[in-house]
Amino acid sequence: MGIYDTSAITTTDLDSLSGTELGSVSPDTIKYVCDWSDYFGSYLKAPMLKASVDRVAIWAVGAGKIKAKEKSHQILLDKITGFGKDSFRDILINLIKVALNGGDSHGEIIKDKAKRLINLVPRNPANIEHEANENGILIKYNQININPTTKKKEIIGSWEPEEIFHLCWGRMADEIHGRGVAEILKDIITKDEQARIALAKFIIRLNLPIRIIEVDSDDTAKLTSVKNQYKEAIDKGEVIVVPKDSIKVEDHKTENQVQDVLNWNFYLMKYFVISMGCPEVILGSINSKDTEGASKILYLAFEQVIKNVQIWVEEQVRLQLGIEIDLPEPPSVDPMVLLDSRKAGATAGTTEQGNKNMKVEGQNK
Q1: Which of 118, 121, 191, 296 has the smallest number of Cβ neighbours within 10 A?
Q2: Which residues contact 192 (CB under 8 A, 6 or more apart)?
Q3: How far is CA 71 from the centre of its chain?
Q4: pLDDT(165) > 90
């Protein structure tokens, strides 16, 4: 058989490569426990995730004390202390951050004998199980514990639905829970962490590049001696003097690889920002390619996100706590965008009129 016989060609199976399928997800409709330890770990280890979640929560609650529309309700809110040192504003920021990050946040509603609200205490989502009936309606929240010996889940208490203030973010279809950004952005966060580790290694290699040392000898003792001398010279910042042509040193270049990793980092950052919906300008950074007008448009889009979160929180406080609050709207850039548009229009009109005048003058000549 000839070496160019195409009948001998075989192919590889690329369908088995990981990450080529998005997969399917079945909604949880009867019981659910948030994988909070995983989502909280992502929040703590990924600075961009933490910064984005924190910014959205802080902007949504706004500056200053939370104001109730009724005076009697304001008195109730002012007495709420959470775990003992919280204000109602602190509690709302906490609950919004947890819900955005992991999908669900819970606050135990504490009332006095007269059924009046006296406190709202944030709870750990990892210890709360949602339980629904066959119609998908929440019937209770179970307080769970993992037995350290048997590793099995144990129910150590429960709350009625009205005893838990529950923020459920990103709920879809008939799920009995929310879905947070940590779950959705997990793949991007993992890739970004890998890229940052690789970049750190490359930066170190720029100062201490991998060197291939070719020694004109195969004697083990001599090779060991050269290696030790070379290491000692590197540690002391000195040089080695050797006979001519006895040693040849080559550096493994990393400059191009560093640029490749940087480009990959920038791509992942942009992908993260788009997926999260919190622009770089809100995070304290402006891309050099973004114009002032583009930054204002990005802020305008973020403003709509914040307003949506505010409406959601206000509604849930009213429905679950029976208190109407009014969160301050974020500062708007609408007037600035309109002003820029008018300036652009005026400039365009002036330019167009100038072009017409030049044509008329040319015809007269």
Answers
A1: 118
A2: 46, 48, 265, 268, 269, 272
A3: 38
A4: yes
Burial of 309 (0-12, 13-18, 19+ CB in 10 A): buried
Opening angle at CA 221, ends 215 and 227, nearest 5 = 55
Cβ(164)–Cβ(141) below 8 Å: yes
Q: How far is CA 233 from CA 79, 201, 216, 241, 251, in A?
A: 68, 22, 20, 10, 16
Number of residues written out for the chain:
365
Q: Residue 216 pLDDT > 70, yes or no?
A: yes
Q: Supply 301's token pair.
A: 């889009």
pLDDT of 233 strictly over 60? yes
| Token pair listed for 269 | 């950052």
Task: Look up residue 197 and give its two tokens.
Answer: 């580790």
Q: Which two tokens stand for residue 259?
A: 């640029």
Q: Residue 28: exposed, middle, or buried by beta-carbon count in 10 A (0-12, 13-18, 19+)?
A: middle
Q: Which residue has the higher pLDDT, 292 or 38?
A: 38
Task: Fill in the amino acid letter for 291.
Answer: T
- Return the amino acid letter for 182: A
| 26 residue type, one letter | S
Over residues 289-314, the pLDDT tens digits come to 666 666 677 767 778 888 999 999 99
* Most confident among 143-152, 163-172, 181-190, 353-362 (mean pLDDT): 163-172
Q: Round the average pLDDT of the chain to a whole number and report it.
A: 79
Q: Where are the domains of the chain?
A: 27-182, 187-286, 295-354
